[in-house]
Design a protein that fits this description.
Blueprint lengths: L9 H7 L29 H8 L14 H14 L3 E5 L2 H12 L5 E5 L4 H11 L5 E5 L4 H7 L4 E7 L11 H9 L4 E5 L4 H4 L9 E5 L13 E5 L1 H14 L5 H11 L2 H21 L3 E5 L9 H7 L8 E4 L3 H6 L41
Parallel strand pairs: 2-3, 2-4, 4-5, 5-6
Antiparallel strand pairs: 1-7, 6-7, 8-9
Helix pairs in contact: 1-3, 3-10, 4-5, 4-9
Bound molecules: pyridoxal-5'-phosphate.
């Protein structure tokens, strides 16, 4: 298990970060950050407009460029990741697609892994391909393949850790070592880890992406995404947000701000429950296979133990049953948004089909959502 540096604890940052910086008179001294449900902001003088445009005054202008509720939420998430800054988005997909569009040149090349959320893969296959961007897909633990896959025109490596759906855990320091030597930007989707269980930025990644819809929000009542890193690395992403407009609504930003306050305690319970459920399933005679990084049987167990301080609440498993039997089981009635404990076997989804990105029989099942 990795050691955390001595600093304010996760719970302290989860509750206070972002909030105090916003305690100004114009917030009427409210203890919590209000929802600024406004599309635009008023300037009180022409001098202020000029100062703002000349970069001498830092404030909000128009809702596509910023909002005080998002800013507080961004600061809280950045503090949790131990990062300089964060940018919020309307969804995890908005965060990933905007980041790829901002960072990849037309006709460029990126590398990713075969265990990866299917919509992100679809974006690469269908939409980045239209811009002439080529994607090479490798097996998550194969860093030799990674070195071979990097070309002179490769600018970006992207993967999830743990990845959806087989919870493959990436050896981030090793991936960073290989990519940095070739000037390739490393982006890790940490949705399934959260900053409580793993901080990929601390292991050298350039940017971290989150679907905040999951653990960060924590209550199944909002869609949101985020990109976290240094101001410099986030610069092109922020610029693209202003043009593409994938922005979060202030109310959703508030729900996320509130949800994150309990992230640390929720993750503690997720980690505990996930391990128990995974062990139970692994011992069950009707379960063919379980994927959970906290199990010694997981292909990345050693990497996970080295890099992560907990393994989360998502457990992937395959029933020893055909489709009809699986459909009759209670797992098949669990909605895809049911993230707090277990999820139905991916092979139980009607229409599940092998994906051309699959490198192993296991990876050929269609993941959730
Ligand atoms: C790992 C991962 N990243 C990104 C996404 C997309 O996030 P969102 O649903 O918030 O757009 C998902 C969705 O399931 C996911 O599992």
């Amino acid at each position: 298990m990795s050691k955390r540096p001595p600093e304010a604890g996760n719970s302290t940052r989860a509750v206070h970060a972002g909030e105090r910086e916003r305690r100004e008179r114009d917030l009427l001294d409210a203890l919590t950050t209000p929802i600024f449900q406004t599309a635009t902001f008023r300037f009180s003088s022409g001098a202020d407009v000029r100062a703002y445009q000349e970069g001498r005054l830092s404030r909000e202008e128009y809702g596509r460029y910023g909002n005080p509720t998002w800013r507080a939420t961004e600061q809280k998430l950045a503090a949790l990741e131990g990062a300089e800054a964060a940018a919020l988005f309307a969804s995890g997909m908005a965060a990933a697609t905007t980041t790829f569009l901002a960072l990849l040149p037309a006709g460029g090349h990126m590398v990713t892994t075969n265990d990866c959320y299917r919509r992100t893969r679809q974006f690469c296959d269908e939409y980045l391909a239209k811009l002439g961007v080529e994607t090479t897909v490798i097996e998550p633990s194969d860093t030799k393949k990674l070195a071979d896959a990097l070309r002179d025109d490769t600018t970006l490596f992207f993967t999830e850790s743990p990845a959806n759906p087989y919870l493959r855990v990436i050896d981030v320091p090793e991936v960073v070592r290989v990519c940095r030597a070739r000037g390739v930007t490393v982006i890790i989707d940490s949705t399934f880890a959260t900053p409580v269980n793993h901080r990929a930025l601390g292991d050298g990644a350039d940017l971290v992406i989150h679907s905040a819809t999951k653990y960060l929000g924590g209550h199944n009542d909002l869609l949101a995404g985020a990109v976290v890193g240094s101001e410099e690395a986030l610069g092109p992403v922020r610029k693209a947000v202003g043009v593409l407009g994938p922005v979060i609504d202030p109310h959703a930003a508030y729900l996320l701000l509130r949800g994150m306050k309990t992230l640390d305690v929720r993750m503690e319970r997720h980690n505990e429950n996930g391990q128990k459920v995974a062990e139970f399933l692994e011992a069950h005679p009707r379960v063919r296979r379980v994927w959970y990084p906290g199990l010694a049987s997981h292909p990345d167990h050693d990497v996970a133990r080295r890099l992560m301080s907990g393994f989360g609440g998502v457990v992937t498993f395959e029933l020893d049953a055909d489709f009809e039997t699986t459909e009759r089981s209670r797992w098949s009635r669990c909605p895809s948004a049911c993230r707090s404990g277990t999820r139905p076997p991916s092979s139980a989804r009607p229409g599940a089909s092998p994906t051309p990105w699959s490198a192993s029989p296991a990876a050929s099942k269609t993941p959730m959502t």
